[in-house]
Amino acid sequence: MGQLDTLFAPERVAVVGATESEGSVGRAVMENLLDGYEGDVVAVNPSSETVFGLDCHDSIADVGGVDLAIVVVPPQIVNGVLEEAGEAGVRDVAVITAGFGEAGSEGAARERDMKAIAEDHDLNLVGPNCLGVLSTRRNMNATFSPKSAIEGNISFMSQSGAFITAVLDWASDHNVGFNDVVSLGNKAVLDEGDFIDYWGEDPETDVILGYLEDIENGRDFIDTAREVTKDTPIVAVKSGRTEAGASAAASHTGAIAGSERAYEAGLEQAGVLRATSVQELFDYATILEDQPMPENDQIAIVTNAGGPGVMSTDAIGDSGLEMATLTDETLEALEADMPDGANIYNPVDVLGDAPSERYEQALDVVLQDPNVGSVVVVACPTAVLSFEKLAETVTDKFEEYGVPMAASLMGGDSAQQANEILGEAGIPSYFDPARGVNGLDALREYAEIREHEYAEPRDFDVDRERAREILERTKERDTNKLGVEAMELLEAYGIPTPQGAIVSDKNAAVEAAKDIPGNVVMKIVSPDILHKSDIGGVEVSVPDDEVASTYDDLIARARNYQPDATILGVQVQEMADLDAGTETIVGINRDPQFGPLVMFGLGGIFVEVLEDATFRVAPVSEPEAEEMIDEIDSAPLLRGARGREPVDEAGVVETIQRISKLVTDFPAILELDINPLVATPDGVVAVDIRATVDQEEL
Amino acid sequence: MGQLDTLFAPERVAVVGATESEGSVGRAVMENLLDGYEGDVVAVNPSSETVFGLDCHDSIADVGGVDLAIVVVPPQIVNGVLEEAGEAGVRDVAVITAGFGEAGSEGAARERDMKAIAEDHDLNLVGPNCLGVLSTRRNMNATFSPKSAIEGNISFMSQSGAFITAVLDWASDHNVGFNDVVSLGNKAVLDEGDFIDYWGEDPETDVILGYLEDIENGRDFIDTAREVTKDTPIVAVKSGRTEAGASAAASHTGAIAGSERAYEAGLEQAGVLRATSVQELFDYATILEDQPMPENDQIAIVTNAGGPGVMSTDAIGDSGLEMATLTDETLEALEADMPDGANIYNPVDVLGDAPSERYEQALDVVLQDPNVGSVVVVACPTAVLSFEKLAETVTDKFEEYGVPMAASLMGGDSAQQANEILGEAGIPSYFDPARGVNGLDALREYAEIREHEYAEPRDFDVDRERAREILERTKERDTNKLGVEAMELLEAYGIPTPQGAIVSDKNAAVEAAKDIPGNVVMKIVSPDILHKSDIGGVEVSVPDDEVASTYDDLIARARNYQPDATILGVQVQEMADLDAGTETIVGINRDPQFGPLVMFGLGGIFVEVLEDATFRVAPVSEPEAEEMIDEIDSAPLLRGARGREPVDEAGVVETIQRISKLVTDFPAILELDINPLVATPDGVVAVDIRATVDQEEL
Prior knowledge:
The structure is a homodimer. Chain A is α/β, with parallel strands linked by helices. In chain A, about 35% of the residues lie in helices and about 20% in strands.
């Protein structure tokens, strides 16, 4: 692609609003650019003759060959500048100025105009309301952050400008370097998806880091990120994680599927490693930047003390890593090399009297063990161990064997120089062994993401036209709710429903019941009556000779309960064999960022009381639907726990996919619940449905 | 108490095994003691004339007035030295020498002798197999750690000596000071409970810190810790927390640690704050050492940037703290003081152009808000903010208002001096705001522990003699298992059981059935047949006229299934109304460290499939039994979820306590399960029981 090359590595940068005025943003940006940027800086400001010795231009239109314009003029005149820049052939712009979407209706209008101008002139526009852009490619700090960055291969985007200033201040002192840094601001034009896309193709970027407060176009983000993470890890803090979802949707799905559920599902489906704190964000970034992929999930500990070995093992127990089982060859070699009393099993304890040479012997053996995917080296200070020599040994072995490693040199200042040696080699080293283990666990997780094969959603032969007709029927009504009358919608999408019919007179009810073997279930059908059972609107196990009288009873009860209700008739339905089956729920609601979110769980108490449910952004592929079943705690109940016969899991998996297709095909469906979808050993059947549609979307 | 005063602050210390020999432990201890200890050092070693210029004594018996003896002689002669020391009137001893319980059967025998000698001479003995003892009271480093400690009010015990060397190395460089430090070693005599007891009374100790791999005498530990935590917080890392960690710990110490479930329950019942990593251990210790208790659980954030404010809010969402709702007065005052655009709601955003004076204005208001229990101050670097001035402001306000505070100055070296100012005032400050929030959350948790009222276990009027008789019956059998025949055990302890009887002939069965209204349940009674239903050994809903034939059938099936089984007869029982009730399980098993551990959960899938169970170390008080119900996820099912009628929760709570009393009264009961205990709106009934007894304990 390279589409943003000139944004991050421009040959000529113009600062529109350049000034020497003390304390101004325009001054800070000029100072930063003039401090080492390997390219031309052009100052634009009609009210100045010169800025920092540079001739000032009246307008960007007067300057030729500008790759990147940094705009710091007052908000009222930003759009005029953008027009001029676009006409002058500038393609890359960062608007630092605030006073747009974040600033009331006037600002929002300005931002709309900005988008239109950007589209007209094909502008790659960063911001507005941002800190600017920084890149070490040409040593350019086009931000108003007082600190710049040292070189590295992490590219970082942030929805908080202040957080960038904090990170830059901290990073240089901790030897963390960056390639590109961008402050996303209001994301009027370029958003996280654009930068992921670009950095995914960029050979200078080894890790993509994000601080995100929201994600635009969730589904596109997922699709882009999936491609990118095959080669380049993406680590993100998504803030606002714990805020209770604001959605007050009526259905069960809505009730527990706040938007954090969507982010959680969406970021996982996107293959994004999620950090929950700033510390994790950079711990993950630095290990991913420098280390190879582990060959497997097993990890070995080499330590000179038992206690810290156990602490490290606990950290491994908390992670997705497993304690490596050393091969017999490894054990024999350790037995031969290590002194009496050393523990040759994992954690390998080289004992408190070990100098770095003994660590070296142990590492030479352990790092060649095919069962060992990564190693953490733990050391307490002793009279005979030099931390610096140990750091050099670990560095050598890391380079020799290419096995991921972390260290924990458990000291204060005495470990500092050794930690620097390790840090330069890309080996994280912290006092607390749990932190290094946590980093290696992120590496494992990324290795898994990298290997992950994403399946395309299955295509099913469905009757889309029929489904549309059923949805459009709601237009003739006062309500946007659908009830059992929408069972046909499921039929149109190939989801099994009980045999039955909706009838609107007594005789038709009797006829319908005749076609159904055994007794029937009869339910009132009215979009205005959602809780049918509560008003006596459902009768089960009705024998054929009571169908006519039951019909009259149901209609009478409904009229009595709500005289003005629209009554569409009565559903006469086959009895589902609930005893032989397990009730499940498949539902969807629509997230503002990610679109349709599919929920799966077990019916009855499981979703409602135990909140045992799982979510995916649609469309859901077959492996994803299978994973959904794996993820719920109550899955064993579908799989033969306590002597039950296992249910038709494939039927559940297929229903999830068909619902996913239905709601992807019809954005008008805002919410939909199949509750219950009864799963039996012989198949599944959708017994009841509720849905809400957006009639304007039809 | 002061019983260990002379251990930590002796006036005269003798080193038995003192030497100048290079690389020896005896030399290291001598060097450390001679480096600043404010007391007399005496060297004991029959093979030397002088050590470091001190006259060497042949035996400790030759020296008078020794408060503390440090023993570093070879293991074979340690016990001899202890005898001499005891006879010479020494009361406090630390045995550094290894080669005892951890070293095979010979070592174990040596350790047994050591215990006997210690008992004879009333020795306060630390170790063996330890690093020694250190205290800043008299600036004494009687360990072989190369680093000593700076003064402070944390007292620290560790089951890993190496971890002490690591912590001492790290702590001085991080301005963390200690009062006493002790390496527990094999805990032949003094264990964690003794030190907790002592430090709990010690005015110099503000926080007790522990690294523990196991706990001796779990129940005593709970009772001691509960008393101590009223005044002095106890923070512990219990390693071997995870399955992987537990097996590593077992091979390290040889200790059979109890189950993690027992430790989890026990440490919580003891009021110990549990840290899961080294970082947490010291983050908690430092904040607890220096800060006052929060008045409430609400926390306010004052920040100069929105993004980091949101991150801090997320950290609060992960914690037990709540975002403070500021009072109207606070909001009005902030509205008046803060510039336009500032967010006056929590998180309070003083904006990016805020100098420390604006923070001061905001803090003056927020810290006086009665809804604010603690405050975290967050700052990103800006051109107008001096971190040092902010640190001074925060320090002043902390001292002025006495409200717990943490800070996050988000910078690198630029924040270092400010962090030192804060650190000296006892205000933790980390780059990652989540860490400070986590510390304040520990403070909140300790405030809760401090306020906690521990109830005495209720005493019940029970028939202990009858219970003993039933248990003793097992002595006549080949098995130590009890089945339904032990329902009487429950009756003896006042736990409701269905009406019924165990009969050993057909006619008695018919008579028994007559006394019971309605149909009956009949079950084979045999200690050899545990899975009665599987062999057709249970018949439900038997009408009176089929009781005789059913009796014969049950006996025949049992004989057929297992010809040599001891058959005690048939139980004729009232039908429990399972439909109206919810099946629960109350069980106990016995943990090697903590003794009887009581479990509670719902029957059926809940414990077995969903693992939804909770545990307490017995004896269980009434409030603890109530908490057990609160803790299970499925509790709403007992409380009227989904239209059920709430069950008799008080009955469940009482049953838990009665079982707790039963197993406390009879250590011979190794395991016992009431499954199910059916809970209905009108009461509870124990429908079945299984137990295992240790006949030798009876």
